[in-house]
């Protein structure tokens, strides 16, 4: 019962994540062309005007089209009198900026769906998986035996002076020796059984 529930939960999580990603991709593909779907919040003209005479510098933003992106259309109210407007506008640097809020929304949806799927999977591993997997009566003695062999091989290995006894290299060598012994024992049992059968 529990393994079936875990597989059903994993399949449901995968289906939910894939459907959210599919919906986000469809929204991105089926969205109208960029020029037609540009809203007023997607475009702006930004004018950076430095200090001029007794007027401090200021940054002006306004939602205007690209052809109207200049000091005369963006800087409102004009901080200088009429005869100084041209000199003031020559100092201002205006840039036309545009962005796609639809693309930003789609990317955020995809990101949140992936993070949500990972959080669901983590919750499944933390909460449900320990209940499903009960300790096996056969593998537990084998695990204990391996730990005992580790302790014996570390105790039998000579420790060099000034070095730690439990270094990574010694662990790897101990594991390699255990693996060689296991392979030799398996060969011996296979050959013994072969002799008995023949």
UniProtKB/TrEMBL annotation:
Places the protein is found: Membrane
Keywords in alphabetical order: Membrane, Signal, Transmembrane, Transmembrane helix
TM helices/strands, residue ranges: 106-128
GO cellular component: lysosomal membrane
Endpoints of the signal sequence: 1-36
Primary localization: membrane
Keyword Transmembrane appears in the UniProt entry: yes
Keyword set includes Glycoprotein: no
InterPro entries: TMEM9/TMEM9B
Region feature (Disordered): 143-162
Family (UniProt): Belongs to the TMEM9 family.
Protein name per Swiss-Prot or TrEMBL: TMEM9 protein
